């Protein structure tokens, strides 16, 4: 069953760009935007990451952390971040366990071929670890600004 607004955010502890681990528990007491995206260095994903990255200070002023997650390995995240000068943390869920827990690892189809992949989705999580807003099947243009407005209002 898909997560709903009001649900407790599933916990995670995952490898991240630059090495080390990040867990949901580290963000307790702060708001968190967790944006799930399909693949590093593809046009939509790059545009989305750059948009969130460009609003880092505004999110910080709203006491909201930013975290990207995809099935790409941490080493690929390192290259992606360096290429686009990204400063927000990116989680590597190469086993797709957290992506599944959040209900965003889904069957997709393109050109008649079906495969498993990430449905671009953003979660706004409150200071108590509860999901207060979910954006599914995200269209990238204007999305980061919309999420920022929701975080500021929370």
At CATH level 3, the topology is Glutaredoxin
- The SSE string, one letter per element, is EEEHHEHEHEEEEH
Which of globular, elongated, flat, extended, rod-shaped describes the shape?
globular
DSSP summary, beta strand count: 9
Query: How far is the first residue's CA from the last residue's CA?
Result: 26 Å
Using only C-alpha atoms, the radius of gyration works out to: 14 Å
CATH fourth-tier homologous superfamily:
Glutaredoxin
**What can be said about the biggest beta sheet?**
7 strands, mixed
CATH class: Alpha Beta
Total DSSP helices: 5
CATH architecture descriptor text = 3-Layer(aba) Sandwich
Which range does the strand content fall in? Answer: 25-35%
**pLDDT under 50 segments (min length 5)?**
none
Overall tally of domains = 1
Helix content: 25-40%
What does this structure look like?
This protein is α+β, with helices and mostly antiparallel strands and 154 residues long. The chain has a single domain, classed as Glutaredoxin, CATH 3.40.30. It has five helices and nine strands, in the order βββααβαβαββββα. The protein has helices at 43-54, 56-61, 74-84, 97-101, 143-153, and strands spanning 13-16, 21-23, 31-36, 64-70, 90-92, 105-110, 113-118, 121-125, 131-135. The strands form two sheets. It has a seven-stranded mixed beta sheet. A two-stranded antiparallel ribbon has the order 6-7. Strand 1 and strand 2 form a beta hairpin. The longest helix has 12 residues, at 43-54. The mean pLDDT is 95.
